[in-house]
Design goal:
homodimer; 200 residues; Arc Repressor Mutant, subunit A; transcription (chains A, B)
Chain lengths: 200, 200
């Protein structure tokens, strides 16, 4: 569904508010969007509907970041690093723990989720194919690693962003094939384990 | 202050409840400790007093884990890995984000905090001295890395524990001197940035 300018402003406001406070109310979103609560409810009948739209938007942002990384023509290992850097900066995976379990995953969202998985697989396959990446890391591992980085919150937003980049850099070093001192313990997470969080 | 058996049971209950829900109430703690709310209030006059005791206990657990790692006689790099593993398993740093800002840091807590720093420094200095560890990682970096791992929560407690160990293993690989592809970006976090979280 195309997003109008008005929708865009509301989605950006909802996104900003949720990134600061996962339990944010509709009135907090309306305040951030500089509109009345009534106006917000005319666009989205309830919190669930708004959160669904944020979720949809979030998946589209992720897919766009992935496609940009694939079309950059950089070497695949650098492309993976760039991609994860943008995902961390954008807060895409920081929203997952807020939104999971609050939104009904309908067919459209499920299709976007599959697109997101597909684009990640292409980036991951290329990075693995370059020989630079350790083989024992799954797609779901990447998701959880970026979520962990997204949990960090210290001082100002700028300092938080810089520290997240710092730990991404450390994790990328750990993801290199040459860094692997032994096989990572425990089975890697499966997609099913991640999607189970979305069951309401 | 010596901890009585009764205190121990209450502290363990409070710890378990807070690890599940950082916003837990006194009555949730009383339920977990299988005691009446009145009984809990006779021990701790208010939530702040109970949280202070949890904080004190948490720092003592951390110091004990650190001292055990130092006395193990293992090689210093393995000792660092073992220590962080126990810290992750115990949830020590998972409690920090819940407790920071809710407890007044009195002189006794501050002294325990300094002891915790001192024991970490000894472990860190030894690991650096072994040549196995990259030099551009600070004590506060370790704290924040373990906190990030502690944010992970997926499926059962057992699965969560296994996945936390998985990501600690990856991060330890990234912490090796040989893994460093470049200096980590951004200045490392300072102790002051971490202690600022405790200002009420």
């Amino acid at each position: 569904m195309p997003v109008t300018t008005g929708d865009r402003a509301v989605l950006d406001a909802a996104r900003a508010v949720l990134l600061r406070d996962p339990r944010a109310s509709m009135s907090a979103v309306a305040r951030e969007a500089r509109m009345g609560v009534g106006g917000l409810y005319r666009r989205y009948a309830n919190k669930q509907e708004l959160f669904r739209a944020v979720c949809d938007d979030n998946l589209r942002r992720y897919i766009a970041l992935g496609e940009a990384a694939l079309s950059d023509g950089e070497d695949p290992w650098a492309a993976l690093g760039e991609f994860l850097g943008h995902v961390v900066d954008d807060g895409v995976h920081q929203l997952t723990p807020c939104l999971a379990g609050t939104v009904v995953v309908d067919d459209d969202l499920a299709a976007l989720g599959e697109q997101a998985n597909a684009v990640t697989d292409r980036i991951l396959r290329a990075a693995r194919g370059s020989g630079m990446m350790r083989p024992d890391v799954s797609r779901a591992d990447l998701t959880l690693l970026v979520e962990q980085i997204g949990s960090l919150d210290l001082g100002s937003p700028e300092r938080t962003a810089a520290l997240r980049r710092r730990y991404l850099s450390l994790i990328l070093d750990g993801l290199r094939a040459g860094a692997a001192s032994r096989r990572l313990p425990g089975p890697p997470p499966e997609d099913d384990e991640l999607s189970a969080r979305w069951v309401i």
